[in-house]
Amino acid sequence: MLSIKDLHASVNGKEILKGINLTVNAGEVHAIMGPNGSGKSTLSSVLAGKETFEVTSGEVTFMGRNLLEMSPEERSWAGIFLGFQYPIEIPGVTNVNFMKSALNEHRRQKGLEPISSAEFLKLMREKMAVVEMNSSFSSRGVNVGFSGGEKKRNEIFQMAMLEPKLAILDETDSGLDVDALRIVATGVTKLKRPDNATIVITHYQRLLDYIVPDVVHVLYNGRIIKTAGKELALEVEKRGYDWLINA
Asked: Which of 162, 45, 145 is nearest to 94 (CA)?
């Protein structure tokens, strides 16, 4: 599904990614861990097409297409979803209008007719239940006045509505209490299918108690320095990163 080969990327002339190699297959959950400043969020931004970052070399293909030649909108239409570390507020735009516009644009790109209001509201109720969101959130501005946990729930709700092929969750657990973490992570797990994949970027093993990864990578100084199964996250929790960095 996703293939990254020797990816290098810079911001303001400073190299952040220094040769990333990563393959993600359909049905898999990959966790990317690492200390602050290791390049985790840069990798997610590059995959989403954020223009702040310049790809200087390397290849990235998604579903057989050259991802680096696609605009951020084209990447979304192709099935890539990015969950932000700090979801933004959009005053004046309600959740229901934002989500209906996004969903219908995705449908238009696939040659489908716009979803009817009745079908949309039914789908919205079903997906809100996945993340235990109250229906009153649908009429509120996107993330306006939401707590940290509510913003993260709203992102997973958006993910549920769009049904992406590849979801990239950039520190979804950041700032969440135990209950919010459980709800968000359980929602992500419920959305897992054999034909989609998830990349979870996190500092902590606690998120991976709920979202069980198939593969764990440790990213440090712009490179993946260790790849193993879910036991690697437990080892990092116990021993920190120094034992890998100094190995």
From this structure: 145
Question: What H or E segment, with its residue span, contains residue 19?
Answer: strand 14-24
Q: Domain holding 129: CATH number?
A: 3.40.50.300
Nearest alpha-carbon partner for 62 in 52, 50, 48, 51: 48
Angle between helices 95-109 and 148-162 (to 10 degrees): 30
Give pTM, 2 decimals: 0.88
Q: Which domain, by its residues, includes 165?
A: 2-245
In total, how many domains does the chain have?
1
Contact call for residues 1 and 42 (beta carbons, < 8 A): no
Query: Which tens digit of pLDDT belongs to each residue from 52-81?
Result: 899 999 999 999 999 999 999 999 999 999
Task: For residues 138 and 150, give the distance between their C-alpha atoms in angstroms, rounded to a whole number.
Answer: 12
| Ramachandran area for residue 43 (φ above 0: left; ψ -120 to 50: alpha; else beta) | alpha
Residue 175 has pLDDT above 70, yes or no: no
- Strand 215-220 with 54-62, pairing: unpaired
- The answer for residues whose C-beta is within 8 angstroms of residue 89's C-beta and 6 or more apart is 141, 142, 143, 144, 146
Kindly state the DSSP code that residue 87 receives in the 8-state scheme: P
Which amino acid type is present at position 63?
M
Residue 71, CB half-sphere, CA atoms under 13 Å: how many? 3
Numbers of helices and strands, H then E, in the chain: 8, 12
What separation in angstroms does the CA of 53 have from each of 11, 22, 65, 84?
Answer: 5, 19, 20, 16
Is the separation of the CB atoms in 47 and 80 below 8 Å? yes
